[in-house]
Design brief:
elongated
């Protein structure tokens, strides 16, 4: 798109960041954020990145090949744990809890090199925790060679296909054209015009069970936004992923790593009534 169009409507200035967020779907914002983590080598966020990749691929198993997924997760998570070990004031309990999560990951319970990698890595971490001299020697001589620039470049290469695969998976979900209403709300209950009985969910556990293993994309006005807010408030482990968006405008994204749930919300258009805009349409 011609950048001059935006310049003409914004008085020659740049679009405000909240306005740009209106033009980008939550998934695109998330992909940009994830790429930024890898490009900047933001290791403290590698575990969160790995959790998100694992969540999405659990929901859409065919998105990445098993071997590709295994290599990516066993690249991000160990690198994060090693970063924890570099700190002289390291939290041993936190490190050990992350080791347990890697050991219990279903991905490594297969007849592939994964289990051997995990076993060797766990033994390495235990030795680093027990022997300060061995830890100093490892981070002085071994770490720069095995976990240096080439390691980071390999992680970026492994991650390269993930955004495209995710976008393609999202594109496969297409909405049909509806020529007439399919139902209505009356006395707090959705009533389908074709007589279909709609199942009701009256507890947070029932809602969670219904959403388990699903990606839900909500697109619409403030009513749809309130449904998003209701789900976040109702499902205990469904937490907002901070996209630094305006409270009323969005876009928003919430993740439940335990139950493999992802919920997104995007406004159907530039909501002039919701927030002051720095440019006019």
């Amino acid at each position: 798109m011609d950048s001059g169009v935006f310049a003409a409507h914004s008085g020659g200035g740049r679009l405000a960041l909240p306005s740009l967020r209106l033009l980008a779907p939550p998934l695109q914002l998330m992909m940009a954020s994830m790429w930024k983590v890898l490009k900047k080598r933001d290791v403290p966020n590698y575990w969160t990145l790995a959790e998100y990749v694992s969540l999405v691929v659990d929901v859409v198993p065919d998105m990445l090949m098993h071997k590709h997924r295994l290599q990516l997760l066993l690249g991000l998570r160990p690198r994060y744990i090693l970063e924890l070990c570099r700190n002289d004031l390291m939290d041993r309990d936190l490190i050990l809890s992350h080791l347990e999560k890697i050991k219990s990951c279903p991905l490594v319970n297969v007849d592939e090199p994964g289990p051997d990698i995990v076993v060797n890595f766990v033994e390495l971490i235990h030795s680093l925790l027990k022997d300060p001299e061995a830890r100093q020697e490892f981070f002085t001589e071994v770490f720069p060679v095995e976990y240096g620039t080439q390691y980071d470049n390999d992680l970026q290469t492994l991650f390269y296909n993930f955004p495209t695969a995710l976008q393609n998976s999202a594109a496969e979900v297409k909405s049909g054209n509806l020529e007439s209403p399919v139902g209505y709300y009356y006395q707090g209950v959705w009533r389908a015009l074709d007589g279909t009985t709609i199942q009701q969910f009256h507890t947070s556990s029932a809602v969670c069970q219904c959403l388990k293993g699903k990606m839900i994309h909500r697109y619409g006005d403030s009513t749809i936004r309130q449904w998003y807010e209701y789900l976040v408030a109702t499902v205990p482990d469904l937490k907002d992923f901070n996209l630094h968006s305006r409270t009323q405008v969005g876009p928003f994204m919430a993740l439940d790593y335990t139950n493999n749930i992802m919920v997104t919300y995007r406004c159907h258009g530039p909501p002039i009534r919701f927030v002051d805009m720095s440019w006019n349409f």
